[in-house]
């Protein structure tokens, strides 16, 4: 009966459909616009495009070994991904079960690299119709079309995540000779309520990486910070979008609409949504979005923009012409070759309103450049040198034929050559930091990437702050011991450093136009760190992270230059090892890298009590892992939609030996609406009761107490750490840089001094990680704390999570040392979260010469434990801190998490804090020990509980 | 809803008609009879409770519906205005028209907001009165949706409805007006038909204390055939009708879906025009 009824219904539907089609007309079986029946195929996109070339090639394959990964810092192709390749580009679409970053499934454009120069700089482009997690496409099926020599294509079928009735099918198509992918997405609404959709590709730039360029009034590379609650205000319409990373040898990208004049969307340094205008999609209705995603070699966006303009012309859009020219220095000769040295931006004046940037170019080594611009329009060419625009723009008007501009003369830069030597006169890998000799000069030598990534600390600006050396106001000196670089004309101090446990050298240089300033600086190691101790930074990012563009070579050199001996390589959602760079540099005896990952929740799912908007669980580090380049995410697991306990379980079998799970920046802000700190995400404060469920989610091994330079964060993280210690959640504290480059966030500031008889020679990674987990370490960005307490067996035991029953009459034996350029003005002894004693500046040694090597010991002595513990009853924990004086703290909202009473100003040049701030911007000298857990009666450590 | 149910309903109405009145159910002291609250439950009022008495009518009807689903970060405002008419035919039959009007939708998916102003749907219906007694009258009807909606990107929506309306005059000042109908909406998108079939039953009590005033209250029950959530909605309804002059009528009414898959929070309607 049911079957008969079904047949009748089918017959009725077919009949009605036939009648309806006869009446109103049907579009026919057009792709998947009427829904995905599992066999429909969207039509080719951008059918007006037509390219030809002399040596066409085209291939389609499934990645079956790691060697098929295209070059580039962001390349992530893994076994099972789809590889589309022609004579001009390599494109990788991630496999269905290998999702990355913000996408809930595979089917995203993962890698896109041009042939013949410039590596992949694309983190990901995935399809979505809005900003919510359930607006993203979740693909579940894949069909490959091999119609060579005409085309190859990959068709991904799916639905919006958690919305099974909204079907989405995307066709990625590649043809020979074409500089981009033709992409068509079809969305069918089989649900019940009208939807507001903005069919788009979400280009996840990641911040600090590729920057989107938008040719509309007042924009270009300038993008106001995106407020996810006010997307409507951020929407723009633009004829194309381009993007490129700076400070790295990377590709450039462009997106051109097909079948329409403009793309709608929003842009910021983290993400661009590029697609159709928001529209209402009724149940039963469908919408299609076609675009051409181009790639071209860098540097800069010029080639990608030229290809975009050519494609627009083929697609029936605006006509354009080529404009070429040459940049010469005023004293003769060419200027070009590096975007940090010179770049060009072309604006269309808008008569008193903000100009419209149309193109950007980096002249080649001969100073030549070529732009493609709309015809019959007036433009102005602006040259940028070392991140600053030159005052006079060159005006010109395009006609209907190509245009050659007169040579553009720019002023000569100065160059600098600095050599760094050790005491024996041997070349030393080091870092150079330039600061203006006169602070008032800073503003005139600061710079940015055409206005993006502007940072007052980058003065003098030597290169893009998140790219390779020179970056910001810094230069890496490699094994040759000498670095040569361009600098703006001016007077500077150049500082040479090899980390906080070496002397600091400084010289004044005068940079003059067309001349080279030379200097040699010497550095010496200081007797600060006890033997058997290794210096470790357990939170470091490199170019593989979506928010970093530092090349592996510079990253690895930076480890040595900062004197860090052990690194946990913790890129966002990707395992890295730096093995190749370390081998090529021959520095394997000076640094050991533990491959790891920073799990970075991107898909909002967690609804803690009281939350109105879903959360993610923040960031956790895990190491050591195995770096597997053939696997998705180089062997890192999919970490989305997992609570910490489930994440720890997922990581457990992946450890390569003794594993460490670290809670990163536990109380950090959110980034692009994604929580970065777990405790903030769940609304935890020291007053939150520790339930069994929460306890299981706090089952990490170590917690960051210091992350980067921020003192504001330190006081909050330490308050959380103290509160957990007092409630029996005893975890080791760590101090890490969370550095994403070497331009602004200095690797090794802070770091961990891990004791236990370790050395790089015959490094025992398991024992090292066990000591970390056991809290046998001190966190520091300069000061060195050496502390131990008398034990009943006559030994003097250092800080550890292993409870210690002090010997009768035991004393705390304490020594604080620091390099002369590090300020130590205070030693704090903290018992159960309260200040037990402070050693004031008057009792401390203060070296007279910050560039010398004397007076390393700032304080040494013994402190009676009984005296220190007076006022406490029962077991207690003790933490020792040393460094700069802690500013006044307040707890304005009474949540138990303090804030600085006043904003911390950058130290002036004549203050003792200036040198550390110059080397590690924003840093104030701070060190802390892990706790001594004092078990007075030997029956195990009883946590004291929170103070009343 | 099958034939047995319909027969049972007809029997019930026949029994109720035992209290006969010489005036007939559609002859009231009021200017109109057998008219449930004018609240749209579908495009061009397909699926709305139909009238059971023949009259000539020309009214301008406006509506606004609100849906706020905070948990889904979703919201929708839908408003429109259109001209409606009824035209008496010989033989106690009439035609009903909804001319394509203007509609405005605002839909928010979190902060992705879209709005559009479009031509709405139209409809054409044929109604035939079937007096059962002096107190009860039935009126079978058919209505067709005219595919004039411009909100669709690519698809076209059509619709068809058949049903039966009825009026039971309980008292000279009180009547029960309602209908049972089977609207089917077909969204044609290429070879694909998106079919929505929403059987609807509802009734309103119309209390007329004075000649110039009627108070209407009742409920509708909507089902959705073939859906994993078969209960579309239960819609309590309320309205007030004012009559003036010779055939002038103004009505405001509202429905508040309280259960089912339809997440609409409220439907507000206002109309004004002439009946004769």
Overview of the structural elements:
The complex is a heterodimer of chains A (about 950) and B (about 280). By secondary structure, chain A is mainly β. In chain A, about 10% of the residues lie in helices and about 35% in strands. Chain A is globular. The termini of chain A are far apart. Mean pLDDT of chain A is about 95; it is low at about 1-15 and about 15-30. By secondary structure, chain B is mainly beta. Chain B is built from one helix and 16 strands. Chain B has one helix at about 5-15; strands spanning about 55-70, 75-90, 95-100, 100-110, 110-120, 120-130, 130, 135-145, 155-170, 175-190, 190-195, 200-210, 215-225, 230-245, 250-255, 265-275. Chain B has a twelve-stranded antiparallel β-barrel with strand order 1-2-3-6-8-9-10-12-13-14-15-16. Classes of the chains: A mainly beta (about 950), B mainly beta (about 280). Chains A and B meet through α1, β10 and β18 of A and β2, β4, β5, β9 and β10 of B.
